[in-house]
Design goal:
The protein has 239 residues and is of the alpha+beta class. It has helices at 4-10, 66-78, 113-121, 143-160, 174-185, 191-201, and strands spanning 20-31, 34-41, 51-52, 55-57, 84-93, 102-110, 126-130, 204-213, 216-223. The chain folds into two domains: 19-158, Alpha-Beta Complex (Nucleoside Triphosphate Pyrophosphohydrolase), CATH 3.90.79; 161-223, Arc Repressor Mutant, subunit A, CATH 1.10.10.10. The protein is built from six helices and nine strands; from the N terminus they run H-E-E-E-E-H-E-E-H-E-H-H-H-E-E. Residues 18-153 form the Nudix hydrolase domain. One of its GO terms (molecular function) is catalytic activity.
């Protein structure tokens, strides 16, 4: 065996037991002033009838990365690609899945309710659940632990960025962004601090249109094409 090609030609992957490897995603949206996540009822064993996160095994013929797996699975359930997708963590161990030693690469994503609700409503095994009502559901595997980690990450990033905008429609007002931010954080924020960040981010442009908000009209904004999220050094709650 003189070359790497010779080595690889004779390599026996079965010599090393492999864990079960999956990809799971926590998908957030906002609806009726509540932060919601998407859960899917398991149709097969193990833990048939429990509710879990959208995900599954990697399709090595179709997916060139775990990100591709996450995006494919989320698109299958929602009918659209999420506005924001970020890797969360890897959860692993011998006891998290009754089938054996397993690991899951997890992602968290944000999407606007209006973009995907028609498709979600047509899928019998998927539903949006407000975070406050999640305790009413029997969750599969260690998915509660994953959700808790994703919620913590979402709130941390919200304090240092304008991430909640990815839960909003394509065009939105300052007031809608403030409401989304407050729902995610679970507390009120200073409007002037949010507007200051909004202007400094360079992420947005006016549409030239407005919408009625009570007795006034509010300007409509949208994300600039190709502009990534801006991170701030100061916490929004102390800015």
């Amino acid at each position: 065996m003189n070359t790497e090609a010779d080595y690889l030609n004779q390599y026996d992957a079965s010599r090393f037991p492999s864990p079960l490897v999956t990809v799971d995603s926590v998908l957030f949206t906002l609806h009726q002033q509540a932060l919601c996540i998407l859960v899917v009822e398991r149709a097969n064993h193990p833990q048939k009838g429990y509710w879990g996160l959208p995900g599954g095994f990697i399709d090595m013929a179709r997916d060139d990365s775990t990100r591709a797996t996450a995006m494919r699975k989320l698109t299958e359930k929602t009918g659209v690609s999420p506005s924001w997708l970020e890797q969360l963590d890897t959860f692993s161990g011998p006891d998290r899945d009754p089938r054996g030693w397993s690991l899951t690469v997890t992602w968290f994503a944000l999407i606007a309710w209006a973009d995907c609700e028609p498709h979600i409503a047509s899928v019998s095994d998927a539903r949006w659940v407000p975070i406050a009502r999640l305790a009413d559901y029997s969750l599969a595997f260690d998915h509660q632990k994953i959700i808790t980690a994703a919620l913590h990450r979402l709130r941390q990033k919200t304090m240092y960025s304008l991430l909640p905008v990815y839960c909003l429609p394509e065009t939105f007002t300052h007031g809608q962004l403030q409401e989304a931010t407050e729902v995610i954080l679970g507390q009120s924020i200073q409007r002037k601090s949010l507007i200051r960040r909004f202007e400094a981010s360079g992420m947005f442009e006016e549409t030239g249109e407005s919408m009625a908000t009570g007795t006034r009209k509010a300007r409509l904004w949208r994300r600039k094409p190709g502009v990534d999220i801006h991170l701030f050094s100061r916490n929004l709650l102390t800015d």
